[in-house]
Sequence to fold (599 residues):
Amino acid sequence: MLEKYVELMRLRFLMMLAYRVNYYSGIIIYSLNIGVYYFLWMAIYGDQTSINGTTAVQMATYVAVAWMSRAFYFNNLDREIAQEIRDGTVAVQLIRPYSYLLGKGFQGLGEGIFRLLLFSVPGMIIVSLVFPIHLPSDMSQWGWFAISLFLGFIINTQLNVLTGLMAFFILNNMGMIRAKRVIIDLLSGLVIPITFFPEWAKNILVYLPFQGISYVPSSILAKGISLTEVISFLEVQLIWTVLLWVPIRLLWLSARRRLVVQGG
Amino acid sequence: MLSIEARGLTKDFKIVQSREGMKGAFRDLFDRKYRTIRAVDEIDLGIQSGEIVGYIGENGAGKSTTIKMLTGILQPTAGELKVNGFDPHREREQFVRTIGVVFGQRSQLWWDLAVRESFRLLKKLYGIPDEKYHAHLDRLTEVLEMGPLLEQPVRKLSLGQRMRCELAAALLHQPSLLFLDEPTIGLDVLVKENIRRFLKQINQEYGTTILLTTHDLSDIEALCHRVVMLDKGTIIYDGGLTELSRQWGGGPRLYLELEEEWDLTTLQGFTKDITAEWQHVGDRCYRVLLTGDNPSVSEVLSRVVPHASVKEIRIEEATTEDIVRRIYQEGVPNA
Fold:
């Protein structure tokens, strides 16, 4: 049953490989981002060794890990789904015996694995040589990080699918897609770690799905949080992956009922 | 056994009606006006397994909408539908295993990857066992002459090459029912012929039921014994192709080139005892329409030859295309 989705994942991986040149520019952009945020944070730290209980080295590590994780969880499924809805390809996919959305999810995973292997891993090695970052040597921490990162990928992908599906109802949802991207970068803690948000914002963000995308996995690796805290973080992530499934399902069912095939 | 069984099949679309001008655009923001369009209107259709049926109609007649309902993509607004024993929309995932679909204007292959990769994906999607897959793919490769194409990325194929691959992709899992939506659009004569021959072959060999929509009536002539004609969402003709031309063909047409110019009324006078209508179509050239109870060509000639010397004769039967055009223009009095 899973075999066909794994095949979809493999195909996406191959397709990325066919277009690998596109990713050379991505490497440069990610390196620049890491550099920019690194120097920005170092300027903020100045002479202080610690702000809000986060040391400068932890901060540098956080920046590097957060951006390299982004390469894994980020995908363009929102744009892709919206595009396929607009030009009617989604209909063509419905004549094949698989779930369209699950298929898309696995393709996103194929894309993520591609970037993780050909981009994040080598990028991380280079970054760790250039910047003074400290990665844990404890394997269990890496294990928790991997689980958390995967859950973060699921949450982000679910949000992407949700935004993409809105194209069924608002034919041009590019604005929404762009807004969503900025919101996720900001509220997930990629740009500013959640600990730096004001108290009231933190209290709200705890209940939102966004921090599960970037802040949670990156903190596990960069700050070495306690096991009980890790478990409670993972629980929140897990709850969100289940909760987000509900609106997706509803949206998809309603969309299939009112599907209008654009362009004949 | 019936492959397709539809009763009272109907599809309505709700369409947003835009108001005019700036003021209208603002009003649209708050109060949308919808208009319901009935694309398919209570169609009854029964197709036996093993049949090849042509489904024709003008643009916007509702052909594609019907196909999309029959393939489970669209949910019918009303009516009963059973295809291969399934409810296509509700039981989509099991249902689509039993059908193959080709949309002439949309590719189902992975654009950036070699054709073989798309086939491999289909093998996994349908869970085709290795042996069966290889045997069938080899056969398709041979018949559709795809050998050199398999390793090429789809985007580098010509339209004709791609179409052959699309057909193979639709048939890889050996469906008992094949839907073809404009399969020969934009193809050259040779490729068209190839594809037709292939379709006939699989119909005879595997008993595959084929439902085909097309604008190219020569496809229908070459393949189908039965046509279903659709106009404004309703079926206006359902029957044999030969009956269609017998009913609507309007008899043969005779083209005559005479030695000298004649007056139309004089010519009409020669044949006043039979129902033939003369038309002037060029210098000394005339067309005689033989209507009514089909008077024979020789009867016309026997009445003309004593008076005027005939230089050249040509007889034309109405083509399917003429018939269809006539039906669309004049409508069907009662089929």
